[in-house]
Amino acid sequence: MSEGSKVVLRDATVDDAEAIARIYAYYCERTTVTFQTVPSTAEDISAGIASDPSGQLPYLVAVQGSQVVGYSYATLLRAREGYASSCEVGIYLKWTHRGRGIGSSLLGELISRCQDLDIRQLVAIVAADQEPSLALHKRFGFKEVGRLESIAFKHDRWLSTVQLQRSVGRGAADPPTRRL
Questions:
Q1: I need a surface site. Which of 24, 37, 67, 110 has the fewest CB within 10 A?
Q2: Would residue 158 count as lying in a domain?
C-alpha cells in the first residue's frame, strides 16, 4: 500500500512485537525521548503486551497498509493495589511518521479505552526537551504536575523530566470500581 493509505488503530498482538521493538530501538539509540539506552527485544515487547494482570489495559498499534507505524500503551502506575485506577501512558511513532496526526489518534483512543475501564488518572513522564510530546499531551488535557531536574544522563548530557497528569471519567469524584 502507498504511504498515503489510511492509518488504522487496533489492539497490539505478540505478532507486532518485532515492529514495535524496531520503532522503540530508534528512540533508545538516537534520541532523548526515552532514557533507556539498550533497546528492548521483541521478546521483551511480547511480555509487555501480555503483562497486564487484568488482561484489559490497552496496548494499541497504528497500522498503515501492513506496516506498524506507531504504538501506545497504558500500564499500571504502580503494582500496589491502591494504584489499580492509575496508569502511566506511552506513545511512540515510527520516526518518519511524526507530525501526521497518528500520535493524536493513538492518545485519543488510549484515553477512551482507559475511561471505559474505569481508570481514573493517567500519568505521562516526558523528557523536558521533547516539546512535541509535551504539546501533544497538553492538547489532550494533561497538566504539568511536577519536574525532576537533571534526573538522567544520556548522550553526554543531563536530562530532566516533566510529569503530566490527566483525570479520566469520574476522576477522584468517588471511589473507583477497578480492582487488581
A1: 37
A2: yes
CB atoms within 10 A of CB 84: 21
Task: Give bridge partners of residue 122 from the DSSP assignment.
Answer: 87, 166
Cell representation of residue 153: 544522563
Query: Does residue 174 lie within any of the structural domains?
Result: no
Q: What is the CATH classification number for the domain harbouring 89?
A: 3.40.630.30
Q: pLDDT tens for residues 104-156? A: 999 999 999 999 988 999 999 999 999 999 999 999 999 999 999 999 999 99
| 43 domain residue, yes or no | yes
137 SS3 class: helix
Residue type, 26: Y
Q: Based on the structure, what is the number of domains in the chain? A: 1
Contacts of 129-135 with CB under 8 Å at 24 or more apart are 129/32, 129/159, 129/160, 130/32, 130/33, 132/98, 132/99, 133/33, 133/91, 133/103, 134/162, 134/164
User: What pLDDT score does 79 carry?
Assistant: 81
CA–CA separation, 152 and 33 (whole Å): 12
Instruction: Encode burial over 13-47: b for 16+ CB neighbours within 10 A, e otherwise.
Output: eeebbebbbebbebbbeeeebbeeeebbebeebbe
Q: From residue 79, give the alpha-carbon distance in Å to each of 26, 69, 94, 110.
A: 28, 30, 29, 20
